[in-house]
Write a structure and sequence with these properties.
The chain has about 350 residues and is α/β, with parallel strands linked by helices. The chain has one domain: UDP-N-acetylmuramoyl-L-alanine:D-glutamate ligase (3-Layer(aba) Sandwich), CATH 3.40.1190.20. The chain is built from 12 helices and 14 strands. The longest helix is centred in the last third of the chain and has 15 residues. It is globular and about 55 Å long.
Length: about 350
């Protein structure tokens, strides 16, 4: 699955958008399976084994899938930094193979590439530890500003993307440039960033806000009093609607499905039943599918359906980028999930 052969039936003249410019984390990681389900103690030594899984960070996942879905008629320009190490060199090569435009991805000699160490318990739960002093942490507003000509050139045919794993100031600059030059603006924020993002009024500079359920809970400030996912999403819409009536919303909740809000209608779609190998990267795949759908001129609901299909395909791989997805596998999943939107099916079949 690479940018060399688009997975959707794309005609350049029919594209609503032709360029994606964005910033976020570019990095890698490893997975370690612990022996035993009891919680790891502060001073405990525990055995386990590394798993044969490749982990990628948000910006790389999103850019890879969008380019693979839309092909050579759609330009993808990530803005990021990697370290001068083996991991950085490998990621650069993989992004080049996917035909991403790497003019704004640079190597920093004095820094290491962003790395996340994920630990898993046999029951599937777990956590991760991520480096804070990586090359991605050096992506700042000044560096993003060097790409302003790209934003100006894309204009209303462009998408500005701002996602985590780089400093919030860099993402704010992407949204600022997107606003200045008329791009469609997409963003996400971690749960820990939500208060600061709202305090800085960043949702005012966003057209589509993509969240997971915990991020939505933090935004809605519901705490634990609302346990039902639908209730959390509705509370999020209530809080956003009064202040940001223009804002479109996407919320993913794993096995509980996903929601989209277009300002009038709240749509819930269940997850497509598949054999899940890992859920890592599923939310990013979902957003990538939605971005591709919007670029193709689908409605938010149609783009939501494409996101569900791509997320279902992604979780069947042990890696957070599934490079074995085909148009046939997407079509089969769309039919299995009853995603019978004719506009969507015509793009996949």
């Amino acid at each position: 699955m690479s940018g060399k052969g688009n997975l959707l039936k794309v005609k350049g003249k029919s594209l609503r958008f032709h360029t994606l410019i964005g910033t976020g984390g570019i990095g890698t990681g490893g997975f370690f399976l612990l022996r035993g389900d009891h919680t790891l103690g502060r001073e405990e030594s525990r055995g386990g084994k590394f798993l044969d899984r490749r982990d990628y960070c948000k910006l790389h996942i999103l850019c890879h899938y969008v380019k693979s879905l839309l092909g050579g008629q759609f330009a993808v320009l990530p803005i990021g930094r990697v370290g001068d190490d083996e991991a950085g060199a490998r990621l650069i090569e993989e992004m080049r193979e996917a035909e991403l435009d790497l003019r704004y991805v640079v190597t920093l000699r004095e820094k290491r590439t962003l790395y996340s160490f994920c630990f898993l318990y046999p029951d599937g739960s777990g956590g991760n530890m991520t480096t804070e002093d990586s090359a991605s942490a050096e992506v700042n507003s000044e560096y993003v500003a060097t790409a302003e000509a790209e934003f100006a050139g894309a204009g209303r045919r462009g998408i500005a993307l701002a996602v985590p794993e780089v400093p919030l100031e860099a993402r704010e600059k992407v949204l600022e440039l997107g606003t200045r030059h008329g791009l469609f603006r997409i963003a996400s924020f971690t749960s820990g960033e939500m208060e600061q993002a709202c305090r800085s009024d960043l949702p005012a500079k966003v057209d589509l806000l993509a969240l997971n359920l915990d991020e939505a809970r933090c935004l809605a400030e519901t705490g634990s009093e609302i346990a039902d996912p639908q209730g959390i999403v509705e509370a999020t819409i209530t809080r956003l609607g009064s202040r940001y009536p223009h804002l479109l919303l996407s919320v993913t909740a794993g096995a509980a499905g996903s929601w989209s809000w277009d300002g009038r209608r709240l749509l819930h779609l269940p997850a497509i039943p598949v054999h899940v190998v890992t859920t890592g990267g599923a939310g990013d795949a979902h957003l990538a599918g939605m971005i591709a759908g919007l670029a193709l001129g689908l409605s938010l609901a149609g783009s939501h359906r494409l996101g569900v299909v791509l997320a279902a395909a992604s979780v069947t791989s042990p890696h957070t980028i599934h490079k074995g997805i085909t148009r046939r596998s997407l079509a089969d999943l769309a039919i299995r999930g009853s995603m019978t939107d004719e506009a969507l099916l015509s793009l996949i079949r």
